[in-house]
Amino acid sequence: MASADQLKALLKSHIEGDQGRFFSVAMQVAAHEAKLGHGKLAEELRDMIDAAKRLGQTSGAASNLVPINKPRGELSGLLTVSYPKSRLSNMILDDTVSEKLKRTIKEQRFFTKLQEHGLSPRRKLLLVGLPGTGKTMTASALAGELGIPLFLVRLDSLITKFMGETAAKLRQVFDAVSNVHGIYFFDEFDAIGSQRGLANDVGEIRRVLNSFLQMIEEDQSNSVIIAATNHPEVLDYALFRRFDDVIEYGLPNQEQIIALLKNRLVGFKPVRSIWNKASLQAVGLSYAEIVKAADEAIKHAIIHEQRQIAEVDLLRTLTEWKQMSARLTGNKEHGRSTKHAGSSST
């Protein structure tokens, strides 16, 4: 049974119209029942929660449920909302990364109890790593696990050339963070978090960074703030201590590659075991690139009416992605070298 605190939290979130918090507490109740061994009840509760979310999305304000928290007015151009169904179990993760994320989820599910003891659960995360290593999917999985909406902060709309306007829009985002419980995801965070002393820095970006530092420091909401970057080396040092956890994502090792391929090709199992050969060929690729290579092999099988993936087809698609990755990486490195040479000569 739900505890007295959970019942009070459910009622309070319903009265206040905080749909995200209501679903989060409901998921806590389901998790508690599962821990007690009431697996069937826990599964029924999760199914009811998922059904309520879907109904809320399709019915909108006309439903008897609390309507979905869709940004309105100017805020609708700054935030994109979704209700992901992803789970952490859907991801192939390094043990260290997995443990940190599970710890965050556990602390979020016991949010009220921790606060009663004067403690704050982890809710400000900085994700760093190469593209395609799972940072964006992590934001979706955390939202799915906690049963709360995922708000993607649209940097293309947030950052403008007009003095003071970006900081003002950033204030609107943080007002939403305080008013609407959810996960707020700042992707490509280095666009606003670059070091204040860089040679190509401009005054407006410095002001935006200072505003962000102040706002995230002052934020005492229940929402989860996630920032992700491919370039942690350019972030301002003052940012790191504003986050509760810095989680580093790397490229998959052979064991993780095999697990990823088996999971992706589950409906098109190869004629014979080729996992070791395929994993060796895929070393150096990101999770996203391996998934795309696997999907290409699946499409080839479907088009040619094959029920199984041929070894030659999977190795070919992995090779193609490896060559493409090498070209892209080479171009990026060349661009950085050219840019560095140009800036050092001025």
Protein described:
The protein has 3 domains: 1-66, no CATH class; 69-249, P-loop containing nucleotide triphosphate hydrolases (Rossmann fold), CATH 3.40.50; 254-341, Helicase, Ruva Protein, domain 3, CATH 1.10.8. The longest helix is centred in the last third of the chain and has 34 residues, at 311-344. The chain is an alpha/beta fold and 346 residues long. A 6-stranded mixed beta sheet has the order 1-3-4-5-2-6, with helices on one face. The protein has helices at residues 4-15, 19-35, 39-59, 95-109, 111-116, 135-146, 155-158, 165-179, 190-193, 203-218, 237-240, 254-264, 275-282, 287-303, 311-344, and strands at 79-82, 124-129, 150-153, 183-186, 224-229, 245-249. The protein contains 15 helices and 6 strands.
How is the topology of this model organized?
Blueprint: H1 4-15, H2 19-35, H3 39-59, E1 79-82, H4 95-109, H5 111-116, E2 124-129, H6 135-146, E3 150-153, H7 155-158, H8 165-179, E4 183-186, H9 190-193, H10 203-218, E5 224-229, H11 237-240, E6 245-249, H12 254-264, H13 275-282, H14 287-303, H15 311-344
Parallel strand pairs: 2-5, 2-6, 3-4, 4-5
Antiparallel strand pairs: 1-3
